[in-house]
């Protein structure tokens, strides 16, 4: 019981410090995002890639944590839309560090310097609308300061490819030519019967 109270108090102190630091517009982490393939066909799967760069001495807590109370893990939320479907879970990529945190009395996982997260999706329609937001927390080893983050994202520039009409016309023309050629190669007897002779 005492341990739970301790955790709650530590969390409250940490969050208060986070809010104070964030109010000063400290931004030790920079996010960017891109797609594994910007030209796709309906039914194909692509990966949505989130990359994070951190300043020296700062680290970012990963999404795959086992604790109930502790540092805020990275979470990426996608707004549901009929144009795409989430496939599997969000995967952390890169050098992930796991160590016991004496403050939280839990094992935590985090990235230093840079981090990457990947989410696989299936494209279901033209003009896919993929957006949402990510939340995270970064802390520094210098003085223990922590900064939370909460930002929106929108993936643009995904082109859904289709077969060109020219190819379809060429295919139809070739099919008609093959048909005519087959008729021209019929035996004379059959041609006579077809003409009514």
TrEMBL record:
Endpoints of the signal sequence: none
Compositional bias segments (type: Basic and acidic residues): 169-181
InterPro entries linked to this entry: DsbDN
Superkingdom of source: Bacteria
Region (Disordered), start-end ranges: 166-197
Domain named Thiol:disulfide interchange protein DsbD N-terminal: residues: 47-154
The name this protein goes by in its record: Protein-disulfide reductase DsbD family protein
Species, as recorded: Agaribacillus aureus
